[in-house]
Queue: 4 jobs
Job 1
Amino acid sequence: MQENEKQFINELLSPKTQNQAFKKLIGLYKVQLYHHIRNIVLNHDDTDDVLQNTFIKVFSNLDSFNQESKLSTWLYRIATNEALNHLNSKARKNGLQTDEITESAATNLHSDLYFDGDEVQRKLQQAINTLPEKQKLVFNMKYFQDLKYEEIAQILNTSVGGLKASYHLAVKKIETFFNSD
């Protein structure tokens, strides 16, 4: 961990500097985490809700942050868990499976005012949506966030080798999806 990250963490943990440091934390990570969450839940309004819940959870659990991992890794882990919990909760409320919720969101991207992608990007989201959950997460973190395998392994609490295999399988499945037309 870099010295300036240690100092920043100390500011987050100190009652005197905590509020100011937390505002800085939000400024540093809200865009990255928004995109990460958006790639999981696909819906802008849901993403905003999950992002807000993520920062609430971060703030209320600052004292339990294990300083052996990077702050960004911890934030991504919380955001990932919050996004998955949101999808599971939404599915339960609607009497559906989680993949049915994400499939519907992927299909409806064309009507989402906040989605500014073209047809190829819509199709990519639909292809990603066909992946099993772990492959979907690994692909999104590697492809869209350009995270290193080591960091993804910490976020998802799994091995680097397993992640590389998941990413490779995900890419092959996405290629097959695109070539099936």
Note: The chain is about 75% helix and 0% strand.
Job 2
Amino acid sequence: MRWGLIGASNIAANHMIGAIRGAGGDIRSVLSADADRAKAYAAEHGIAKGYADLDAMLAADDLDAVYISTTNEKHFPQAMSAIAAGKHVLCEKPLAMSVADAVTMVRAAEAAGLVFGTNHHLRNAGTHLAIRDAVAAGRIGDVLSVRVFHAVYLPPVLQGWRLDNPAAGGGVIPDIVVHDADTVRFHLGEDPVDVVAIDGVSGLGKGVEDSCMSVWTMPSGAMVMAHESFTHAHARTGFEIYGTKGAIVARNVMTQAPVGEILLRSDAGEEALPYSDHNLYLRSLNLFHAAIQGQGRPAADGIDGIKSLAVAAAVAKAAKTGQRTTVDYGGV
């Protein structure tokens, strides 16, 4: 599989280049808005070509797929260009600045017969696969509620547009709420109906929110409480699911690393759930490659990306208006 990187990003450098190559992919080119950065990034990572012009990169007849990791406002036009050029697309979350644009890009890929994936890494983690399996097996009974703790401290290397550029899609809601929405959907197998929310600035945000709390209702009647932040240096992430027969309490699992602990509590006592410590991104890439070959689907496809964005959009609207907000999934 011949790949092009749209975005000379930290996530590509730290996670995706290795995963693409580990899955047997060949990275042929990388795009940056800065030609010098494109060339330097390509040289640093052993990539043959660096481009500053997307059309020129896509016109080169040596790419099967692209991975998009630019700032959020660029995802839609770049994905549409790649789809028009006949390339499979794996895009970072959130897919676009609006649900309507996300629907347009995903439908365009479907019409072109191309595979479209959303790079929601958490559902590839061994911890979350173990949690989902336990829930599906009925080990905690019917789900009553979920609590998500995803308040972290944004590393200095990632501070910048996420904290001060709403036009680029900055803010904790588009950055982290989408992750939590996808993870809740992954475990419960249902989509949030409506939300209430409060956002705020607690030390880092400049023109965007850096903290958010929200409550979601699910079709089953289960309720979800979610907390996201960029400013909590000493917090541990967590994911808790409470059911009629037991509870799953997981700590340090909202992360890119294959770490954390999972406890299952019931009348029988408390036990630690084992999980695989495989590379999250490598699993995602293997599934994406298989989907292109007609075997299965990506770990998170375009519809998953639309739905996680829709929940985040509802949370943002609820926080702004102070009103309970129905999630609009754009007709998907």
Note: The mean pLDDT is 97.
Job 3
Amino acid sequence: MKVAEFGKVAVLFGGTSAEREVSLKSGQAVLNALKSQGVDAYAFDTASQPLTELVNQHFDRVLIMLHGRGGEDGTLQGALQQLAIPYTGSGVLGSALSMDKVRSKWIWQALNLPTAEYQVIDKSSFNAEHCADIMVRLGGIVMVKPANEGSSIGMTKVSDAGQLSAAIEQAFQYDHQVLVERFIVGQEFTVSLLGERALPSIRMQTPRTFYDYEAKYQASSTEYFCPSGLDVETESGLAELARRAFTAVNGSGWGRIDFMQDQAGQFYLLEANTVPGMTEKSLVPMAAKQAGMSFAELTLEILATSEVSR
């Protein structure tokens, strides 16, 4: 698709979610790249501009760079469909399912895709007296995650019942439903998806307790390996698992699937991301670069996903 055919493009970023700061950085980087390629692109912060302005200002399509709730959970996608404005990435269902760690895990489990043992905790029925039993059943070390947050926000690694109770209460500050998952000792990988293609996998390594918000966006001690060091057969198998997992939650256009590999070499699905970060430290641009694609070329490929009929 020629650049001129994209028309007037709004890059949606900022917003009001807990990931606003990351979204601002992602959106500005993407906006600059699109402009450098001659795209008629404009900044659009949904925290200060109503979506109806997209119609009033005659935008032809939007590139979504809103991370977290209100941008990645299907609500924005539904609004854009009602406004008949083409948008990038997954549709309503794929966005909603991918954002929800509990329901995406249920789908993967139903399809016999590998995912760690877990328990779902609802705020209305949580009883701290059950924490000891949960720790025993899930192997003694667990990750606590709000069901609907990204960028590791609200996540905690715990190793005893007292810590678990406190971590669950902290996660309830972000969501009424919490996922408690067996902690997998091993290495963390991610696979980015662009259309039908899986980009080279990346292995992340951090001296921190786990690959948390600081390790992702702030620390200089995080190491990234791309190529990740997997042999050709394992790399191919991981790419196929990423595609299957993304398709299972109705993901489309572009996205990222995160994994843990245990010490026996088994991969486990962690989560799906339908609007991954696009900052200077982000993983999708890193994988694209390894595949021979510049950041500017990647942004055009992402923008082109707005042509998908829904």
Note: The chain has three domains: 3-88, 98-114+185-302, 118-182.
Job 4
Amino acid sequence: MVDVKYEIQNIVLSVTYEDTEFDLEKLAGILEGARYDPEVFPGIAYKSIEPTASFLIFASGKMNCVGAKSMEDAENAIEKLTEKLRESEVEIKSDPEVEVQNMVASFDFEREFDLELIARNFRNTEYEPEVFPGLVFRLEEPKAVILLFVSGKGVCAGAKSEEDIQKAADRITEVIE
């Protein structure tokens, strides 16, 4: 079986600080470049530069972290932000609980696909070229959605780990050979 190359494009994580509430007004003044307009959105939008990640921070002590291209970068960005919060005297009792919600990766299968043929032969697929040029392939195990294109490129969404991304690539390769 051919090893399919993939590249993580985005990781979405939920971050929860147990028993912590954020004073968003105060935080917005502390975090450089933070945007907070409660009339428009009930949270702070904040972007960390090194490593690159964006955060939506809510008063409930919860955050969403998006935009990191590796788990290491995501964890480092969360760690740095947690450190900034602690330095600014936000009372944080314990390290945040971090959960991966979604990983998006791009694939290159290094071959072209006959999407019509794949759509006819497999259930769990959707292909409407008049609406969207890719074939949507829903996998049960791992639970992920793969978009396949005639060019041999693909996108995996919904995975929760790199292991799932690799399994999805292997599963697609297995199924269409």
Note: The chain has two domains: 18-95, 103-176.
